[in-house]
Write a structure and sequence with these properties.
The protein is mainly α and about 70 residues long. Helices cover about 60% and strands about 10% of the residues. The radius of gyration is 13 Å and the shape is globular.
Length: about 70
């Protein structure tokens, strides 16, 4: 039980500090993007659009920064 709690806490901690560029999959990048989206009026929609494009191309393009990286679909 202690190991499970530690893993759960570690995962939660990582999710809080995740950035789209630290993600390895498109889904992780979208999740991290949405944590930053509240600073932009259309942030969630931009993150979703970037995620759809990432699924098609395998490359994440940050909707706020324009930075790119390869991601698994």
């Amino acid at each position: 039980m202690k190991a499970f709690a530690l893993i759960a806490l570690s995962s939660g901690f990582l999710a809080l500090w995740a950035t789209p560029s630290s993600a390895t999959t498109c889904a992780q990048a979208v999740y991290a993007c949405k944590t930053e989206a509240n600073r932009h009026a259309d942030g969630v929609a931009r993150c979703d659009a970037a995620g759809e494009q990432c699924k098609k191309t395998g490359e994440w393009v940050g909707p706020f920064t324009g930075k790119t990286f390869k991601a698994s679909r």
